[in-house]
Amino acid sequence: MTARNRSRGPRTRKARRGPRADPPEKARGQLDVARAEEGPLTLGVSGMGFVGVAMAVAFAHYGHDVVGWDVVDRRREDIAKGRAPFFDPGLQETLSSAVRTGRLKVASDRESFFRRADVIFLCLPTPSRPDGSVETSFLEEEALRLGKLLRKGRSWKLFVVKSTSPPGTARKVERILAGESGKHPAQDFAVACNPEFLAEGSLVKDALEPSRIVLGTTDARAERALRQAYQGFPGKVVVLPPPAAELVKYSSNALLAVKVSFANEVARLSEKVGTDVYPVLEAVGMDPRLGPHFLRAGPGFGGSCFPKDLRGLVAFARQMGVAMPVTEGALSVNETQARHVVDLAEEASGGLLAGREVALLGLAFKSGTDDVRESRAYPILGELLKRGAMVRLHDPRSLENFRKGLPQLLSADPGPRVRFCERAEEALTGANLALLQCDWPEYREIPLPLWKQLKDRLVVDARRSIEGKELRKVGLRYVAIGRGEP
Ligand SMILES: NC(=O)c1ccc[n+]([C@@H]2O[C@H](COP(=O)([O-])OP(=O)(O)OC[C@H]3O[C@@H](n4cnc5c(N)ncnc54)[C@H](O)[C@@H]3O)[C@@H](O)[C@H]2O)c1
């Protein structure tokens, strides 16, 4: 948390001390518009995953009463007790403080959640379908359930689609709510979208200090309520019609991923040219029109967003009759990057990985999180096994999550060819070579004598995460992605 945030102080702290009782029910048909328009808002967060929890603690931090809801009992119990359901820097502390102060509460059932919340942020999954298009059924089915509750409700409500979803989704949610409740959009309720740009590994910081706040609405009352929800947050507010706001999110992720894949293309070329891509990309990024961010070579992008959002964008565009070859290109470079990483390791091993033991260090999709969704460690492991290697796996945070994801990846049980190691020492001692997939700071602390335990004295760094000079000084070979030998 920055000094700036600490000193800001919540806006309406005094008025909201202590639990707020639900207001008495109004006579049937009489809408309580004033509650949502004038008083402090209770913000509801439906879906307490990475985005939901981060936004719930951020809203609580800026002084709102927040009520959370998730279909998973265990998740609700954990959050109600102030226990972070996953690792991200600072999340545990911020969450326990939000719960301790009483600002963040968790509803025990959907109906009480619905009653208590003036604004409902839908932070539900939007996974890929097998054809790459976006599965919006979590949002649509929840809209059906909420529509039933809206039918009985007396007060104006705002529903906000925070999930990343294709243009037109907010409008679809509005149609479902209207159809199910018999109520009128604009008059009895509104639906807006408000895409989220936070990144795992810096969830809390990004939620507290958004780069921009994009509000997708053409409804004046919805805009006022959303501006109230975000009062005190830094970051410019941009108001757009819902389909445009929905498109902002996809375009942002696609352009970031294009930068990553482009950097990886130049890295492959640098390896052949016999130069180091890092100073090249650094100089490229000095152009203010380009900027230095996301110009780094590595094993490719993974995680729960970039791959699925790019696939989703391409599939949506195809439905609209538009080709997106640049976005498709970013995906296809990414798909071959894991193989490229293993090629580097194979080449450095004299062209043969069969029978060699590889210590694969770092399994999360990036450092700073225990999330392994679409981690590049999966295709790298698959490729290593295909070439006959034995693999020792280590990660300081996500060993267990990675283990759970393995059966989906491997059709056959890899048996003793895959070993899970609790400590990096266990992975390195007696292995032939190490392959770094993630730039966890812990790996920079590994003492030189431990690296020297590697039988082939070979370290392949797919993330440029450690200092190769030191390793070379003590006689190890250090091969890094994007660094060709002159
Ligand atoms: N993870 C990120 O870094 C990130 C960043 C920006 C946007 N997004 C987008 O935000 C959305 C959510 O992503 P996430 O990573 O938080 O997902 P997640 O899988 O971590 O969390 C989703 C949560 O919703 C719950 N849930 C499922 N159905 C529900 C229902 N009907 N009612 C209530 N709860 C329900 C699940 O139990 C889970 O806890 C996605 O659209 C994603 O693309 C994610």
Question: What topology emerges from the helices and strands here?
Answer:
Layout: H1 3-8, H2 33-37, E1 42-46, H3 50-61, E2 65-69, H4 73-80, H5 91-100, E3 104-106, H6 110-116, E4 119-122, H7 137-152, E5 157-161, H8 169-181, E6 189-193, H9 203-208, E7 212-216, H10 220-229, E8 236-240, H11 242-273, H12 277-285, H13 306-319, H14 325-348, E9 357-361, H15 377-386, E10 390-394, H16 399-409, E11 418-420, H17 424-428, E12 433-436, H18 441-444, H19 448-451, E13 458-461, H20 468-473, E14 477-480
Parallel strand pairs: 1-2, 1-4, 2-3, 4-5, 5-6, 7-8, 9-10, 9-12, 10-11, 12-13, 13-14
The structure holds nicotinamide-adenine-dinucleotide.
Fold and architecture overview:
There is one protein chain. The protein has 486 residues and is of the alpha/beta class. The chain has two domains: 3-19 and 27-240, Rossmann fold; 253-480, Rossmann fold (3-Layer(aba) Sandwich), CATH 3.40.50. It is built from 20 helices and 14 strands. The strands form three sheets. It has a six-stranded parallel sheet, sandwiched between helices. Strands 11-10-9-12-13-14 form a six-stranded parallel sheet. β13, α20 and β14 form a beta-alpha-beta unit. The relative contact order is 0.09. The chain binds nicotinamide-adenine-dinucleotide. Nicotinamide-adenine-dinucleotide (NAD) is lined by residues 46-52, 69-72, 75, 123-126, 138, 142, 163-164, 196, 198-200, 304-305.
